[in-house]
Amino acid sequence: MHIETYISDLLYRYDCVTIPEFGAFLTKRVSATIDESNHTFFPPKKVISFNEQLQHNDGLLASYIADAEKIPYEIAVQKISKQVKSIKSFLNEGETLSFSSIGDLILNSDGKILFEPSNNSNFLTEAFGLSEFKASNVNREVYKQQVETLEDIIPISITPERRISRDSTTARPYLKYAAVALIALTAGGFAVSNYYGNQVETHNQLAQEAASEQLDAKVQEATFVIENPLPAATLNVEKQQGKYHIIAGAYRVEENSNSKVEELQALGFKARKIGVNKYGLHEVVYSSYETGNEALNALRDIRQNYNKEAWLLVRELE
Q1: Residue-wise burial string across 263-280, b where 16 or more C-beta atoms lie within 10 A, e elsewhere
Q2: Whether 42 contacts 137, CB under 8 Å
Q3: Sheet of strand 16-19: strand arrangement
Q4: 244-314 sits in which CATH class?
Q5: Are 76 and 69 in contact (CB under 8 A)?
Q6: pTM metric for this prediction
Q7: Would you list the domain boundaries of the chain?
Q8: Using an 8 Å Cβ cutoff, are 302 and 269 in contact?
Q9: Sequence-separated (6 or more) residues with CB below 8 Å from residue 89
Q10: Which residues pair with 107 in a beta bridge?
Q11: Of all helices (H) and strands (E), which one includes residue 298?
């Protein structure tokens, strides 16, 4: 029995998976981080740790193994106990125990278990398809701003305005009258414009009301009669139900997700797209199931024959 496979499945959905009489694997969600020393961006993930003190059997692992292998719960507990004895014997010999996609376990000089998590797996389902990437350095050129002092090479002189000698009493009254006339013309123009604008708007509104009344009268008089109606067509469309979805992949480009759906449907799967996740990726599933047992059996078959990276998503779709 490969117990690490069952532990890995449960870590996607639970924050604590206990191996009775041995210890527990714990997960903690951390946000996306940036390593400024090498300009590397890391997506959000679940950080895995191991606690040797948590050894009480909470029934989670045994129940999952019993459902997956179709065996009684008591038999599953016995198989776990046998596996734990083998693990402890292996560690006592000074060997390093590697759990695929989870991490490595080893005993220190004090007989305590040390755990080194694996960096190859991300158990945070919301970050599926995201990977770390390194950004290249951006070289910027800095230009110094130099301020030059302008010398007074060409002097600037200001010549006082020369006024034409004339009788102010004869010139200023004409300017006053011209300003009064300009104000009067402007005010009159605004008044005439507003008046004609209101007239045109009123006319358009009355014409629109009359047209609407004529159209309503024509519609009420019209009678539609279909002598030979077409027979009603009945389409049987199978709609996938269930909250257990086997994920085939998530794609940034929607055309790639459509191609993946066609490829899986050609293989006989009820493949479809279940939407776009919070990171903008189009998720494609092999199929969806009503019960967890059906989904686990299908997942085991897909991993063995088609895709080892397939995983189970539990989510109610809107």
Answers
A1: ebeeeebebbebeebeee
A2: no
A3: 16-19, 23-30, 45-51
A4: alpha beta
A5: yes
A6: 0.40
A7: 3-134, 244-314
A8: no
A9: none
A10: 113
A11: helix 292-305
